Amino acid sequence: MDIVPEIIRENIINLINKKERADGRALDEFRKIFIETGVITKAEGSARVKLGNTQLLVGIKPQIGEPFPDTPNMGIIITNSELLPMASPTFEPGPPDERSIELSRVVDRCIRESNMLNLEKLCIVEGSSVWLLFIDLHIIDYDGNLFDAAVLATVAALRDTKLPTAKIEEDEIILDYENPQPLPLEDTALMCTFAKIGDQMILDPSLDEEEILTARLSIGMRPDGTICAMQKGGEGSLTKDDILKAIDITKGRIPQLMEELDKTIPQAR
Amino acid sequence: MILVKDKDIVVPGEVLAKNDYYPGRGTFKEDNKICSSHVGLVSIRNKQISVIPLVSKYIPKRGDVVIGEITDIRFSMWGLDINSPYSGFLPASEVFGKEKRGLENIFNIGDVLFLKVVDVDEVKKVKLGLKGRGLGKFKGGVLVYITPSKVPRLIGKRGSMINMIKEKTRCDIVVGQNGVVWVKGDPEMEKVAREVILMIDREAHTSGLTDRVRDTLTELIKKVKG
User: Fold this and answer.
1) What whole-number distance in Å separates Cα of residue A156 and Cα of residue A108?
2) Which residue of chain A comes nearest to B198, CA vs CA?
3) What's the rounded Cα separation, in Å, for the pair B123 and B127?
4) Which residue ranges make up each domain of chain A?
5) Is residue A1 less than 8 Å (CB to CB) from chain B?
6) pLDDT score, position A79
7) How high does pLDDT run on average in chain B?
8) Are residues B173 and B189 in the same domain?
9) Is the pLDDT of residue B89 over 80?
10) B74, B155, B206, B213: most buried, per Cβ within 10 A?
11) Is the CB of residue A112 less than 8 Å away from at least one CB of chain B?
12) What is the CATH number of the domain that holds B210?
């Protein structure tokens, strides 16, 4: 973490206590969202998302592999994230650090627990061959709130993904690259992240805000309003009211994210 | 022979002139050709060609005044972030006499200071100082970050631009050569000043800027006063 100058800290807290923010947004407002899909031709699905000045790239690569013994008829998703050193002075090259692991696990949980991806349909031969989906997150620019941008980009990339159809002929798997099919997506889940600064819960914290927050709460939600993932961060505590308020705002903001997503890449039917 | 006009945008490697011109800042010479080493604007003064980069980092120079933030306290010095690839240090002797105790009681981590670059050595160790008019710690206000190469534009000819902003917004404004600007005044006016400073940062390479800044200022102030 960078050290935030005392002046900036005071300024942000004073503004938030007056229900204003340094960049002129309302407390429950997202920064400008930009989504682009199909940016990596070598990957089966990809997306680039910008949330204000935060920017990241997601690629999806499928591979055929063995299922886990306890779920022989289910495909596997593996999420990984890479915090590129050029994205921020605080990102170092080397093995993934705490932040990188947290990011990939939160994204993974939001996708997995929402059941948006029907993993049973990713099974080719029960017990021996299933699709493995590698979700790779690359952070290009870091200006706060990676979680929301990452989930949004992952969902967009999943929608963009087309898998070759797999057929079994004489005990051999034949891949048909000519007629790729979209992934068996049955729902959507998106995420809203809040920072608690002063007594307020603010949506989509920027880098400066993220560095001075006392507590952070990410809520993954499906469009019908059911919560599928949650993550608490930061040193401070949250009250019950804080959490309920955050859930309320999330319910109001998910349709906006859905609209941005559908505008760029509608759900394949 | 010259191949570009004043204020043209050029890219690294672009040939600017051949023979009878001198390479200035942001250029290099190769077989009698003068080439740009930045993405930036050409500036021709007499026979010297230089390129002012559109985006730059601050490289410390002796005699500059900068705004720095304390990131480290050691036995007899403070470490400062001066918005540059090189970090600066402020020796305790700049503040104390002989006795050097309790540095954290004077300046603590996170404090923002207005300093002077006393010396830069061969390995770019930046020695900072507090001896001079107006130097010291800032209390309150907001910080605005701009590209260091646009600082001259923000100040204007003999301070014309910055004085206009100061007058109209009635804010105290301090500009560091390292692209950090400190603004203090009425909270609403601080916002106006911030907005205008960022506008200058965005549009520094265009002409007729002063007039546009004046218009924007008047408009924003009118909005605040409602």
Assistant:
1) 14
2) A23
3) 12
4) 4-264
5) no
6) 96
7) 89
8) yes
9) yes
10) B213
11) no
12) 3.30.1370.10
A160-215 pLDDT, tens digit each: 999 998 888 888 888 888 889 999 999 999 999 999 998 999 999 999 999 999 99
How many alpha carbons fall within 13 Å on the CB side of residue B212? 11
Q: Which residues of A touch B112 (CB under 8 A)?
A: 5-7
SS3 A150: helix
- This model of the complex carries an ipTM of 0.74
Task: Based on the fold, state whether residues B196 and B166 are members of the same structural domain.
Answer: yes
Same domain, B74 and B48: no
**Is A10 near chain B, with CB under 8 Å?**
yes
Residue B205's pLDDT is 80
- The shortest C-alpha distance from A83 to chain B (Å) reads 21
May I ask the CATH class of domain A4-264? Answer: alpha beta
pTM (two decimals)? 0.85
Pairing of strands B126-129, B88-91: parallel
User: Domain check: are B92 and B32 in the same one?
Assistant: no
Residues 6+ apart with CB under 8 A from A182: A159, A161, A162, A163, A268
Domain that holds residue B78: 65-137
CA distance to partner chain A, nearest, from residue B42 (Å): 28
CA distance B70 to chain A (A): 8
Do residue B74 and residue B146 come from a single domain?
Answer: no
Would residue B132 count as lying in a domain?
A: yes
Interface test mutation site (partner A, options B83, B111, B142, max chain A beta carbons within 10 A): B142
Chain A residue with the nearest C-alpha to that of B67: A5
